[in-house]
Amino acid sequence: xxxxxxxxxxxxxxxxxxxxxxxxxxxxxxxxxxxxxxxxxxxxxxxxxxxxxxxxxxxxxxxxxxxxxxxxxxxxxxxxxxxxxxxxxxxxxxxxxxxxxxxxxxxxxxxxxxxxxxxxxxxxxxxxxxxxxxxxxxxxxxxxxxxxxxxxxxxxxxxxxxxxxxxxxxxxxxxxxxxxxxxxxxxxxxxxxxxxxxxxxxxxxxxxxxxxxxxxxxxxxxxxxxxxxxxxxxxxxxxxxxxxxxxxxxxxxxxxxxxxxxxxxxxx
Length: 268
Ligand SMILES: [Zn+2]
Known about the structure:
Helix content: 40-55%
Number of domains: 3
Shape: elongated
Bound molecules: zinc ion
Structural class: mainly alpha
Strand order of the largest sheet: 1-2
């Protein structure tokens, strides 16, 4: 939610909108909330409703102590009496996105670091104290970051456009997305036959994984990047991952290749 706000250094009272009869909150979000963000927003509204709101600077206060000061004693009392701990808040980690995908374990691990923002892109390595050239090896123009590499690097865009060409609204939303996690979470559900459903579900993960593979080939071995090869590998790996699905036996790889457009359109 914080990432979505266009007023990150605003004070709490500045987000408040008062009319004669109501008080509401405007967090200055740059787009409408998705369902899972509303799940975070609703408890936040409840919390905001309980506070005394005054104009002035915000400050931290420890609510388990009457003076608002953190003490180890108050923390100890809190955790040694479980009923004092309110039901666990909505856990922001997108568990199903990472661990419930029908992909091999190494891909899950990769997705896990990606969702945590810890993929070893150059910006992350430099933040950890390395001193690498910050420019993306793929385009040579912008800083390499997770968002840039996987979504906005020109050849990555070409790949997304290639696979999403039939759905220009979905493709256009890639420019409003604030993170790869957000993009994956917003990946729409689809109708279609069983093969379409599997392919569609695996598609974004396959694209991201193959971009990473080509990026590493480029970074470590200076290999050429061609979108044609990337597309082939994406289709190939979807087929390979799909092997754990028993229904795949009814199809041949050739069916996937020759009927690709219909399959991702959900028309076949
Ligand atoms: Zn780049």
